[in-house]
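FOLDING PROBLEM:
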Amino acid sequence: MAGIRPPGQFNFTKPDEWPKWKKRFEQFRSASKLSTEPDTQQINTLLYCLGEEAESVLASRYLSGRASTVAISANESLSNSTSRNYTT
């Protein structure tokens, strides 16, 4: 399914929109077959879709560990922190 576009850039200043963005990314991940790719490619795609601000947010929250742990934690943060604002 070539040509499937990821969701628009993630907006860190609007936590009420995070669940909707996460759902769109999960749909993109499935429809594009990204879910079958290696973890590093999935993580890099997620970070790319989140935008530049994601790197600083993740760096401030997760100082070490495997990339997959960071991605899982980022995904959990989107799920569990809809009332927080992680602007830098």
Q: What stands out?
A: The chain has a mean pLDDT of 77. The chain has four helices and no strands. Residues 18-31 form the longest helix (14 residues).
